[in-house]
Amino acid sequence: MATALHAQGPAEEGFTCKANENDALTRRIADDPAFLEDALRAQAELDAWTAGFQRGERGLFIIPVVVHIIHNNGLENISDAQVIDGIRVLNEDFNKLNPEWPGVRPEFLDIVAEVGVEFRLARKDPQGNCTNGITRTVSTQTYQGDFEMTQLIQWPRNKYMNVWVAASANGAAGYTYYPMWLNNWPEADGMVLRHDYLGSIGTGHPSRSHVWAHEVGHWINLMHCWGNSNEPGSESNCSMDDDVADTPLTKGWTSCWLAANSCGSELDNVENFMEYSYCSKMFTLGQAERMVASLTSSIAQRNELWQPENLIATGVEEEPVLCAIGFTRSKSEVCTGETVQFTDASYHNVQSRFWGFPGGTPSFSTAANPAVTYQNTGRYSVSLIVSDGDINLNTTEPEAIAVLPAVGRAVPHTESFEDITTLPTDEWLVRDPDGDGGFQVTSAAGYTGGRSVRLGNGPDKFGRVDRLVSSTYDLSGAQQITITYRYAFARRNPNNDDRLRVYVSSNCGTTWSLRQQLRGSMALATAPDNNGTFVPDGQGQWGYALIDNISFPYHSQKFRVRFEFESHGGNDLYLDDININGVHVGLEELALEGGGLLVVPNPAAEQAQVLFHLETGGAVRVELFDALGRTAMAPLEARLPAGPQRIDLPVAAIATGTYVLRVSRPEGNAVTRFVRE
């Protein structure tokens, strides 16, 4: 019986196989008892077809390809150029054009195969629209790279070879299934590749670039050179075969020992693409015949891919015509003085281009990949005109680049959204990759006042990620940084596990560090499950969060905060009263000796409360000092029990300005800054 799943691991360490660990296939067999029988019948039919197959005068087989990049805006969001390079390597490997093949052992030179299969990125999508054969989907499922991830997007398998590129390939370098399994399982048809095993540029590497050829080999019915064992190197593999006459029996190799001669062969074909060695260079003539036989069989609809009518439907035989315009950028948000790299992503056959960069230097360009520097804060548009000599296309993105202050605003800072009617603003940016609204100001509810920000959520948004991102704050002089905020969320059912994450950045958003995560299955829900539209009913349905695990390297002039929500089908999310605070150098005599002290809201005009926690009950003293260290109010003293504490602060009785609040408690003193507006 054929091996269920084929997977490769890192080339530098040899390869590993996860053939017996695929949950999706196990579930499929368990859910449908007839599935296994159907697969065995399909394999028998394909074996009979292959045994009688003769290629004859058949020419080139062209296979339309679509590459689905599943990413979370990380390195796995590889460039179009890397995908195109991967296609180049794949075609070289299949057609005896790779520069390595002349270097195979002389004993195998006469059987290095020109398979005669060419892979082309689609130029028409399933609806007949223009495409470059590359799709991009934002999802944290990129980190799993499993069957569920592939269900995010798939094009018809009888028209396209589906390839999913992700941060993970279910723990391997790549994997796919034999045609026998896919015959009656079309939703699993295709292959998953880890992003750094595709192509030789970008995150790829020449030594890892042949993994795609290995997976395509499995996809069109090739076994490993040692047969169906999942353990290369085992002596028991010598009793198996790969059903290809010109590949010697071998126990299988995870290293490049060219003199290997296991299983009684004169020489093993260690340099074969279907080995796990890291020096693969060739398919054999017998392997080529077996793959082409599979392509001409109806098993898993392989024989429909290369038919002339499908090549027309997918656009792969047409002359390229300019049909789409677009661009990418290295960053959407920068600080003053920083540079953005732009890339023209228009297709096809662009002959000339003209960029417009208001507020940038240069202000225009005709280059394919211009670099633009921004010196002044603001939100700036970018325009692009492209032409192939006959057709002209143009596009403008109104707020393509947000330029933030290199020295951020002073803290403490409180955002209650009472003075904001719409987002984005110069202080709060919205990242809505799915274009379904993202974070918006709402007057339906608020913890303090009548407004907050709301993110619409529901089952139709499962897997989507939205972000609310701050401008910059100057925390370069802080001794301790605290962030607090109010949130409200309800699940629709107990299975909802939506996630709210808070990140911080010290470098204007070039890199981010996770500092808190609240999950629907744990601490995120603040109200009972609600299958309708959730609106928090009073302050009792709001939660309170504190972040104080922000280390010294983040105490910078370009400090930023990012709220990120990943939907798992729950209800709406609300945020309010975001406080960013720090105790600054110059008040060493009031240095923080304890932790977990907050004033909310901060700044405050009329009312405020001091929030802290007592590990043990005892005497508590609350003192307020002005910027010169003078007492600003009569101390508040009381004996309090252990647990969370809230003490009203007489804000209206003090003058406007910046103050330091100190709470003396049994476990030590705590200090924070406070602003009276």
3D architecture notes:
The chain has nine helices and 34 strands. By secondary structure, the protein is mostly beta strands. Strand 15 and strand 16 (392-404) form a beta hairpin. Residues 9-14 and 584-595 have low confidence and may be disordered.
Whole-Å distance between the termini? Answer: 76 Å
Global outline: elongated
Number of helices: 9
Provide mean pLDDT, rounded: 90
- Give me the Rg, rounded: 31 Å
Count all strands and give the number: 34
pLDDT below 50 for ≥5 consecutive residues: which ranges?
9-14, 584-595
Q: Level of helix content?
A: 10-25%
Which structural class best describes the helix and strand composition? Answer: mainly beta
Q: Characterize the biggest β-sheet.
A: 7 strands, mixed
Portion of residues in beta strands equals 25-35%
In short:
This protein has 677 residues and is mainly beta. The protein has 9 helices and 34 strands.
Give descriptors for this structure.
single chain; 677 residues; seven-stranded mixed sheet; six-stranded antiparallel sheet; 34 strands; elongated
